[in-house]
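Lab notebook: predicted structure, single chain.

Context: the supervisor wants predicted structures on file for every construct in the current expression panel, including those that have not yet been purified. This is the next one on the list. No modifications to the sequence; it matches the entry in the shared construct table.
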Amino acid sequence: MPSFLDLPARTAKPRRAGITHVMDRGLSPLALESLLVTAGEHIDMIKLGWGTAYVSGAVGDKVAICRDAGVAVCPGGTLLEIAVHQNRLDRYVEWLHELGIDHVEVSNGSLPLTRARKGELNAELAREFTVIAEVGSKTGEAVANDWCEEMLGDLAAGAAMVIAEGRESGTVGLFDASGEVHGELVDAILRAVGQETVIFEAPQRQQQAWLLRRVGPNVNLGNIGTEDVIALESLRRGLRYDTLDLLPAT
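Prediction complete. Output recorded below exactly as produced.
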């Protein structure tokens, strides 16, 4: 990258703050390699969305490509929920090891799963994987106290980080049906668990810009589309109108 402009300071990989967590909806290995050539230094984790890893070819090749690029890979939490619901957790774990995946998402937003059982899964899986625990239902109202309590419980059980639900649409959880951010929920989460422990799902540009202005250029953002990685990095750097106010004072 050039260096002649004064831009907001960015953390470097491997990092805990400033993470960009990308949603892979089924990229081919060739498309993934192309993405990483262009934007690999800005990507920290790729989530194989929903159950796409189960129906995609060459997943092991994609994991190897990401490993060589210093990018973590994590299957979507829905796949784990289905495996637990069907009593196939052991086979799911074996399959992840076969693929070389060392991150796993634990969620309870799609199928019935009590907090107690979720905590047990966090603890069990944390012995073999880096656990990212997602909090928030894909339907229904977000209650700040409930989210914060669940996040703290997940971390205490062994999760390395938590994800605040926004879904790929950006219209639930952290956001209302029109995509507007629930600011009081964001603030409560930051007070409860801290900036470096939470990834905020924010698929829409205006949501990303809001969080960058509220938290700073090194807020952790998730569910970023593969086509939006470079655009997000320009937002982080104050290189778009939406975040010009992040530029250092001159």
